[in-house]
Amino acid sequence: MSIVAVFTTHTLFEIFELLNSKLKEENTVTFIALNPDIKDHVFSGEVIKVNGDTFIYRGLKSWVNLAELLGCKMMTPKIVSEYLIEITFKKLQASNSFHIANTPKKEEKYGTDSEFAKISKNEEATFLYHYKKALESVKISGRRNILDIGINKADEFDIIKAIVTTDIFAKMKLVGIDHSSSALELAKDKFPNAIFLNADINYFDTLDLGAFDLIISIGTLQSPGINYKLFLMNLVQNHISENGAIILGFPNSRWIDG
Q: What sections of 34-87 are H helices per DSSP?
């Protein structure tokens, strides 16, 4: 594996242009950069001297972000000297994504045999942090009737169970709706006392569910087959109890190659 460059005082623009060009021809690019651990309390972009050599400093997150923007993942850096590291960017395989997968039964696009089933939202730090903060904001311990639209494997219920006491969790009426029967089977195994409905949410009102203290929907209502504005208006007007709350999550990115 050849080294394409040793980055010292190169600007990020220059680095981007070079790596982007190389990645049009190769699946990986490897380069040498300053070890970000060499100094504390320094910002990306600061010019620093190390052992008489001049570098533009960049934190590890800068390199991770650059890899993502170039459609790559960053491999674990290797130490090559006292103050230099070797970094490799490896192209993501765009074809490895559940978003473009062909599923014989559309209801099972997010089922247990799908690529989507490999995803565990609760092991993604950004999701876990913000979802936990949202549950704390709605004072989850005081909620009793909870509906999750697009429940899938019931990951959202896992965090609720982890936050509240055993006694409070036992008193909660948990209801989940999803199109995928195979995903709901996993949810039922984890939460046998909850109610899980295999249904198309476009026909939500035929379920006659009444009102809830809390409604949760993560990564579902943006689906093109749902009239979002009308659906949300119906939820707010007819299915949230007085002083009820709603937690909505919308994806701002796509899953590619893990």
A: 60-69
Report all structural domains of the chain as residue ranges with CATH numbers, in order of start: 3-91 (3.40.50.150), 99-249 (3.40.50.150)
Which ranges in the chain belong to alpha helices (H)?
12-23, 60-69, 125-137, 155-163, 166-171, 181-190, 228-238
How many residues does the structure list for the chain? 258
CB within 8 Å of 77: residues ≥ 6 apart: 60, 63, 85, 86, 87
Residue carrying the six token digits 């982007």: 20
Mean pLDDT over residues 68-95, rounded? 94
- The first and second tokens of residue 221, run together, are 């209502």
Region 228-235: mean pLDDT is: 91
**pLDDT tens column, 84-121:** 999 999 999 877 666 555 665 666 777 777 777 788 89
Q: Are strands 53-56 and 47-50 parallel, antiparallel or unpaired?
A: antiparallel
Other CB atoms closer than 10 Å to residue 179's CB: what's the count? 23
* Residue whose structure tokens are 């990115």: 253
**Average pLDDT score over the chain:** 92
- Say what the pTM is: 0.85
CA 51 – CA 16 distance, rounded (Å) = 26
Q: What pLDDT score was predicted for residue 104?
A: 58
Give DSSP secondary structure letters for 225-238. TS-HHHHHHHHHHH
Radius of gyration of the CA atoms of the chain, in A: 24
Residues in a beta bridge with 178: 198
